[in-house]
């Protein structure tokens, strides 16, 4: 996989995502379900934020200070026009190093584009920058085993990969997190979303403040 191809593909899609024809309900109900688990609402991060602004709109309305991250310059440009008050990062999630921790992280239909060998470090990075009790909602290919593919379902040819459900659940466990919800929300398509919560209890058994 050439990461530049992912950038080019999303640059091509950016104006459509920014326009009125894009389905702005995509993923919103799933995020509302995830937010129901989130008790603190300070900082949030939208990974692969794109240009539609729909997830950022939802998070801002729920009281979060939101950051967006995307690998596509065109997506970031349009996102800034829509939300000039939001901090955006033009970066590859594989290389980006967060300087803050978050109460809520969304990675909706985004991290499945990272190379298969980068999946574990990327997911551990995201779960690792959750505050205690923080929530991460993300999508993955709902397969039993790891796999990778390339297709043109969205128009531009795109690369996808998945660790498979068993490996992801194991990774969640060793990251001091709990899977609160797992659903095939587009069945029979193998599109799965997970709601993951960082454990509240610290090592000494006390609930962090």
Description:
The strands form two sheets. The chain has a seven-stranded mixed beta sheet, sandwiched between helices. Strands 6-7 form a two-stranded antiparallel ribbon. Strand 6 and strand 7 (158-162) form a beta hairpin. It has a single domain, classed as Rossmann fold (3-Layer(aba) Sandwich). The mean pLDDT is 93. It has six helices and nine strands, in the order ααβαβαββαβββαββ. The protein has helices spanning 3-18, 28-35, 54-61, 73-82, 119-128, 165-174, and strands at residues 43-47, 65-70, 87-90, 102-107, 130-141, 147-151, 158-162, 177-184, 191-198. Helix 1 (3-18) packs parallel to helix 4. It is globular, with a radius of gyration of 16 Å. By secondary structure, it is an alpha/beta fold.
Secondary structure elements and their pairing?
Blueprint: H1 3-18, H2 28-35, E1 43-47, H3 54-61, E2 65-70, H4 73-82, E3 87-90, E4 102-107, H5 119-128, E5 130-141, E6 147-151, E7 158-162, H6 165-174, E8 177-184, E9 191-198
Parallel strand pairs: 1-2, 1-4, 2-3, 4-5
Antiparallel strand pairs: 5-9, 6-7, 8-9
């Amino acid at each position: 996989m050439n990461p530049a191809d992912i950038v080019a593909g999303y640059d091509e899609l950016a104006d459509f995502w920014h326009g009125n024809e894009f389905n702005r309900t995509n993923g919103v109900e799933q995020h509302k379900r995830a937010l129901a688990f989130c008790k603190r609402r300070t900082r949030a991060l939208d990974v692969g934020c794109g240009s539609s602004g729909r997830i950022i709109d939802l998070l801002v309305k729920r009281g979060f200070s939101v950051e967006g991250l995307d690998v596509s310059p065109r997506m970031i440009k349009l996102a800034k026009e829509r939300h000039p008050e939001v901090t955006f990062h033009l970066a590859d999630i594989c290389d980006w190093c967060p300087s803050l921790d978050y109460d809520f992280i969304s990675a909706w239909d985004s991290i499945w584009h990272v190379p298969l060998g980068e999946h574990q470090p990327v997911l551990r990075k995201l779960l690792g920058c959750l505050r205690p009790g923080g929530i991460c909602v993300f999508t993955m290919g709902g397969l039993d085993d790891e796999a990778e593919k390339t297709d043109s379902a969205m128009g531009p040819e795109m690369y996808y990969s998945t660790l498979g459900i068993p490996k992801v659940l194991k990774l969640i466990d060793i990251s001091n997190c709990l899977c609160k919800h797992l659903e095939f929300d587009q069945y029979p398509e193998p599109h799965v979303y997970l709601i993951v919560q960082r454990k509240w209890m610290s090592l000494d058994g006390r609930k962090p403040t």
